[in-house]
């Protein structure tokens, strides 16, 4: 055991996870239902039970671990990037893409050279004149709003808007084994010195009044690919606080992560850390459950 972590269970519990468990419990979901939801998100039964027992001591004894067959039967196939037969790369259709690192819970895959330097530079050039201060989706009504948590400039391409977008989208669809039509258009972001994207989830919170409007087009988001279009001299990594993972921004590399269940138990909380020198440019692809029009 790591001598620095005196309570390994507490180390698993972020504020978001705590609030989610307590909120779900208060709104009538019992500990067994929460155990199932956490297992469906990829948690081991042992760790999920430890977390639930810590947060809901009043809930009493939890059921034994769910049989794997029970969770697998409810699990649906979603977008994923998985190298075959222990190979160090995945097939992107028009190129082999190196897999540098991968995690299972949460599912995170770090890829090298998804885009070459020329493609990165071209995408930046196509996006530059269309940048506007980035917005976030307003939870209350589904409208886009400028927000302090997100201090970048950004723009969206339509899906297939340029030959380059089409080529990148076909490559990403092949890598994720998920239809091009289920993807939102590429978003390009530029962060200057000090700009960041504070910890957030990419899925939509279905309890919010604005959710139906957002979900009507293509359903829930299931996964994200963030592609680094340049290499900032310092800062600008992508961090996953619940997974203890930090991905460094290097031109052409990318990080894929998925959240099959749209809850904090997905452990997909992530942030773009402040840029300390120069600029950071990324392209983000979000993919949905169904066709996105
Ligand atoms: O800039 C980053 O590293 C993360 C971007 C991100 O989280 C997003 O676009 O949703
Ligand atoms: Fe994000």
Description:
The structure is a single chain. This protein is of the alpha+beta class and 293 residues long. The protein has eight helices and 17 strands. A nine-stranded antiparallel β-sheet has the order 1-2-3-14-10-17-8-7-4. A hairpin with a 4-residue loop joins β12 (238-240) and β13. α3 (31-40) packs antiparallel against α4. The longest helix has 14 residues, at 163-176. Mean pLDDT is 89; it is low at 1-5 and 69-74. Bound molecules: 2-oxoglutaric acid and fe (ii) ion. This is 2OG-Fe(II) oxygenase.
| Sheet with the most strands, sense and barrel status | 9 strands, antiparallel
Proportion of residues in extended strands? 15-25%
Helix content: 25-40%
Q: Please provide the ordered H/E string of secondary-structure elements.
A: HHHHHEEEHEEEEHEEHEEEEEEEE
Distance between the termini: 49 Å
Spatial extent as radius of gyration = 19 Å
Name every ligand kind in the structure.
Answer: 2-oxoglutaric acid, fe (ii) ion
Question: Which structural class should the secondary elements be placed in?
Answer: alpha+beta
What is the averaged pLDDT score?
Answer: 89
**Cross-sheet strand order for the largest sheet:** 1-2-3-14-10-17-8-7-4
Count of DSSP H/I helices: 8
Principal-axes geometry comes out as: globular
**Low-confidence sequence ranges:** 1-5, 69-74
Query: In total, how many beta strands?
Result: 17
Protein name: 2OG-Fe(II) oxygenase
């Amino acid at each position: 055991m790591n001598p620095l972590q005196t309570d390994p269970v507490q180390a698993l519990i972020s504020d978001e996870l705590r609030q989610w468990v307590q909120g779900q419990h208060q709104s009538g979901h019992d500990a067994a239902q929460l155990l199932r939801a956490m297992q469906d998100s990829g948690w081991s039964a042992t760790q999920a039970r430890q977390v639930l027992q810590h947060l809901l001591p009043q809930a009493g004894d939890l059921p034994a671990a769910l049989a794997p067959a029970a969770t697998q039967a409810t699990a649906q196939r979603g977008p994923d990037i998985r190298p075959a037969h222990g190979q160090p790369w995945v097939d992107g259709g028009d190129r082999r893409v190196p897999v540098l690192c991968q995690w299972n819970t949460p599912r995170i895959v770090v890829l090298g050279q998804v885009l070459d330097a020329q493609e990165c530079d071209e995408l930046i050039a196509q996006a530059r004149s269309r940048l506007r201060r980035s917005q976030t989706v307003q939870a209350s009504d589904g409208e886009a709003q400028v927000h302090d948590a997100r201090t970048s400039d950004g723009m969206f391409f339509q899906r297939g808007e340029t030959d380059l977008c089409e080529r990148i989208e076909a490559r990403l669809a092949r890598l994720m084994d998920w239809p091009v039509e289920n993807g939102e258009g590429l978003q390009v972001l530029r962060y200057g010195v000090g700009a960041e994207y504070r910890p957030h989830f990419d899925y939509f919170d279905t309890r919010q009044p604005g959710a139906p409007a957002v979900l009507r087009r293509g359903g829930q988001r299931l996964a994200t690919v963030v592609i680094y279009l340049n290499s900032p001299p310092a800062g600008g990594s992508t961090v996953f606080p619940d997974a203890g993972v930090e991905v460094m921004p290097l031109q052409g590399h990318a990080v894929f992560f998925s959240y099959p269940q749209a809850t904090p138990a997905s452990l997909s909380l992530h942030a773009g850390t402040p840029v300390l020198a120069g600029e950071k440019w990324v392209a983000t692809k979000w993919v949905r459950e169904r066709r996105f029009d």
